[in-house]
Amino acid sequence: MDQAIIIPIFGMLAGIIISLAVFVWQYKEEHGKRETVLEVSKNLNDPTKVEELLTIFEERKKEPIDYRRNGVITIFVGIGLYLLGYYAIGNILKSAGALVGLIGIGTMIAGYLYPNTGKELTNAVEEFEKK
Question: For residue range 100-118, what is the model confidence (pLDDT) as tens digits?
Fold first, then answer.
C-alpha cells in the first residue's frame, strides 16, 4: 500500500481504538467499585452504614455548575482558535473561534441570569419577595 493511504487509515483507527480503550477502562473501574460495595454490604447489617459506604464511593460533585467560570474558559478557547486561524490556518478556524467565543459569552450571561450558589439563590429570593 502507498504511504499516503496508510496514514489516514491509522488516524481513523487510532480514534476508534482510543475511544474503545477509554470505554473499557471506565467500565472496569466502575465494575470493581460495584463489586466492592456489594461484598461489603453483604456483611453489614445496619442500613445506615451501607448508605455511608455508598456516599464514600460516590464521586459526583454536589456543587452546581458555575456557568460564569465555564463561560470565561470557553471565551478564551474561542479567542485562541480565532487567533490560530488568523495567523496560521485561515478563515474556517477564525469562524469556528468566533462561534466558540460567542457560545462562551452566552454561557457567561446564563451564569449571571441563573444564580447557582446558596447565597446567590437566597439573595434572589429575598429580592423577589421585596417586590
Answer: 898 889 888 888 777 666 6
**Residues of the chain where predicted confidence (pLDDT) is lower than 70:** 1-2, 50, 53-54, 56-64, 115-121, 123-124, 131
Query: What is 90-123 written as a DSSP string?
Result: -HHHHHHHHHHHHHHHHHHHHHHHS--SHHHHHH
Q: What contacts 66, CB < 8 A, 6 or more positions away?
A: 111, 116
Whether the Cβ atoms of residue 89 and residue 65 lie closer than 8 Å to each other:
no
Which three three-digit cell numbers place residue 87? 495567523
Q: Are 97 and 85 spatial neighbours (Cβ–Cβ below 8 Å)?
A: yes
User: Is 91:85 a contact under the CB 8 Å cutoff?
Assistant: yes
Using an 8 Å Cβ cutoff, are 71 and 110 in contact? yes
What pTM value is reported for the model? Answer: 0.46
